[in-house]
Amino acid sequence: MALQQGSSEVVRILGIDPGLRNMGWGIITVCGSQLSYIADGTIRTNPKETLSQRLIHLHEGLSAVVRAWSPDEAAVEETFVNKDAKATLKLGQARGIAMLVPAQAGLLVGEYAPNMVKKTVVGSGHAGKEQIGAMIKILLPKADPDSVDSADALAIAICHGQHRKSARLAALLK
Question: I need a surface site. Which of 13, 22, 100, 151 has the fewest CB within 10 A?
Answer without folding.
Answer: 100
